[in-house]
Write a structure and sequence with these properties.
Distance between the termini of chain A: 50 Å
Largest interface: A-B, 45 and 50 residues
Shape of chain B: globular
Radius of gyration of chain B: 24 Å
Helix content of chain A: over 70%
Number of domains of chain A: 2
Number of strands of chain B: 0
CATH topology of the largest domain in chain A: MetI-like fold
CATH class of the domain at 93-303 in chain B: Mainly Alpha
Number of helices of chain B: 13
Oligomer: heterodimer
Number of helices of chain A: 11
CATH class of the largest domain in chain A: Mainly Alpha
CATH topology of the domain at 93-303 in chain B: MetI-like fold
Structural class of chain A: mainly alpha
CATH architecture of the largest domain in chain A: Orthogonal Bundle
Low-confidence stretches of chain A: none
């Protein structure tokens, strides 16, 4: 008898039911922050879908130069109009999501993969290694990130991998500083001392006791960081450092539209910018929502 | 006072290793990445002997270590070196372009401060109302607006559609720049020369770029001011002020805002790097002849010394501002121990 209730408690259907119920009650518990999180998640889901399956949404190929007249304002057949090469802007927006999302995600991942271990080690070991690493990271952190990214991107030359590297370099210190700070404070916790007292190895303490407690904050920062990476990627390709022609990209479309701005071609600049903003907003909202829910102490910010 | 002086000196010495590291990083990036000034200048198909000769002339054939030591040696003597592409000292174009960037940054910052701080304080005083919510929404949305897109949209509306404001440059071509006194800051120059007409023209050119920069950065300041104000408004001296019957507006904008302002000042220092990055993008959008455009131009030419020079100046600029903020902070908040 007792066994069967135990089993049903963990059955799949009741789990789904409980998650669903939690989903509904979370609204009451967290208020507006919950809806911010949901809205952010929905934006990200939608853009991710666009990026993964653009052909199911886009009416034309992003490179197709025979979709209609040049510089046509939004209207029937072209909801966002066409550009100077008579390419369909809507299709370019849909395919362009691929580039920006991919680069931003890969860059954030790369910088966290480098930044987190360095931060853990630096905070845990301390001493001269910590001093040197902190100095390096702080100098990069205090310097305008975009300018560093510009220098890297310009030197590496255009290309998807290169732009990802340029963006990633800028954000390594973000993770380093966060993780190092967290490690420093967690290191002093009683449970870490207890682990040390029972003779746990340093690698075990770091991996099993410190890392899991650091990672929660990293999740929030990761989401906010993708938003920043999106802005940086777009900025780099806007100033012409990002990608070779032939890859649809929002930032590049924006810089193209700039040339036609004096003639009042508003649709060429409005939509790419709007897309960048909405996508960045999605990740910001997700991050903000997560930070409220995971860490109520931040609520006042 | 003596303590303050010691604090300032320590702070200055702390920024030196940071500067040093940044310079080294940039030096290395420039040398290990593909491309060099000689091939950028002569093209890829120049004969080998010409390339070699040019490299020797520029000192590029030396080992990187030797080049680095030469470079540091120059820096110690406060010399940024000579351009590798043009026959000029690196400092020359920087002197010419820096005022443009500073002017843009200062006006952008002013706009952000006034606008952002006021909105934030207002939102805090109307906590949990519709107005508070809309201001918070504004702050969050505006943070995600690419600064160059904001610039383009403002250009479209106020420059192209309405035709009210110029969309590029620092001054109308019909105004002779040579008549200006030579600080490089056009606002100051025009005022010094007493040419009111030119001054107005310069100010009109400043409106769109600085508002662009200001709006985009204001989001952070709205959020920060609001959060600080909420804390301060909860404190007892505010209750006391209210109990004495001081008008609410005075309580909020005088008594509370004064104390909420200290953390905002710190934030200003931290945001300065962001402001500079924004300024570069704004320069691109508004054809503003500043440091950002100089940097981009010289990056394409692989003019190492000038690129390094620009970076040095940016880094100095950032550390100077953060130093200044710390000092002001120490002066206005007697609780700070230094």
């Amino acid at each position: 008898m007792e066994n069967s209730t135990e089993a049903s408690k963990y059955s799949l259907s009741s789990r789904v039911g409980r998650i669903f119920k939690w989903f509904i009650t979370a609204n009451k518990k967290y208020g507006a922050e919950w809806w911010i999180l949901i809205a952010g998640a929905l934006i990200i889901l939608f853009v991710t879908y666009m990026a993964l399956f653009p052909q199911t949404l886009a009416p034309y190929s992003p490179l197709d130069q025979n979709t209609g007249p040049q510089l046509m304002p939004p209207g029937p057949g072209h909801p966002m109009g066409t550009d100077n090469l008579s390419r369909d802007i809507l299709s370019r927006m849909i395919y362009g999501s691929r580039t920006i999302l991919g680069v931003a995600f890969a860059a954030a991942l790369l910088s966290s993969i480098i930044g987190i271990p360095l931060g853990l080690i630096s905070g845990f070991i301390g001493g001269i290694i910590d001093r040197i690493l902190s100095l390096i990271m702080d100098s990069v952190y205090s310097f305008p990130g975009l300018i560093l990214a510009i220098a890297f991107a310009a030197m590496l030359g255009p290309g998807v991998v290169n732009i990802t590297l340029a963006v990633a370099v800028v954000y390594v210190p973000t993770y380093f500083r966060l993780v190092r700070g967290q490690t420093l404070s967690i290191k002093e916790e009683l449970y870490v001392e207890a682990a040390r007292a029972i003779g746990a190895r340093r690698s075990v303490i770091l991996g099993k006791y410190i890392f899991p407690n650091v990672i929660a904050t990293v999740v929030v920062v990761f989401s906010l960081n993708i938003a920043d990476a999106i802005m940086t990627e777009a900025a780099l390709s806007y100033i012409g450092l990002g990608l070779p022609a032939g890859i649809p990209d929002w930032g590049m479309d924006l810089s193209m539209g700039k040339k036609f701005l004096p003639s009042g071609t508003w649709w060429m600049i409005t939509f790419p910018g709007l897309m960048i903003m909405i996508l960045a907003l999605g990740f910001t909202m997700l991050g903000e929502g997560l930070s409220e829910i995971l860490n109520p102490r931040l609520l006042e910010r | 006072m003596k303590n303050l002086l010691r604090y300032i000196i320590t702070r200055i010495f702390l920024t030196i290793p940071m500067l040093f590291f940044l310079l080294t990083l940039v030096f290395i990036i420039l040398r290990i990445m593909p491309g060099d000034p000689v091939s950028a200048m002569l093209g890829a198909h120049a004969p080998e002997s010409v390339i070699e000769q040019k490299k020797e002339e520029l000192g590029l054939n030396k080992p990187i270590g030797a080049q680095y030591i030469d470079y540091l040696n120059q820096l110690i003597h406060f010399d940024l070196g000579d351009s590798m592409i043009f026959k000029q000292k690196v400092i020359v174009p920087i002197k010419e372009k820096l005022p443009a960037t500073v002017e843009l940054t200062v006006f952008g910052m002013l706009f952000t401060l006034v606008f952002g701080v006021f909105l934030g304080a207002y939102a805090a005083s109307k906590r949990r109302t519709g107005r508070d919510f809309s201001i918070r929404l504004y702050a969050n949305v505006v943070y995600c607006i690419p600064v160059y897109w904001m610039g383009l949209m403002l250009q479209l509306v106020f420059g192209v559609w309405l035709g009210w404001l110029p969309i590029s440059g620092r001054v109308s071509p019909r105004i002779l720049v040579s008549t200006f006194e030579n600080t490089g800051f056009y606002t100051i120059d025009t005022l010094l020369s007493g040419d009111l007409h030119a001054f107005i023209d310069v100010m009109i050119h400043l409106i769109l770029p600085s508002v662009t920069l200001g709006i985009v950065l204001s989001g952070i300041f709205v959020r920060l001011t609001r959060a600080n104000m909420l804390d301060v408004l909860r404190s007892e001296y505010i209750l006391a002020a209210r109990a004495r019957g001081i008008p609410e507006r005075r309580v909020v904008y005088k008594h509370a805002l004064k104390n909420a302002f200290i953390p905002i000042l710190t934030m200003m220092g931290l945001q300065f790097a962001l402001l500079l990055a924004g300024a570069i993008l704004t320069e691109m959008t508004f054809s503003w002849p500043g440091m950002g455009r100089l940097l981009m131009e010289r990056i394409y030419l692989r003019d190492y010394p000038t690129i390094q020079g620009v970076i040095v100046v940016f880094a100095l600029f950032v550390s100077l501002v953060s130093l200044l903020v710390d000092i002001i902070y120490a002066i206005i908040d007697p609780r700070v121990k230094y």
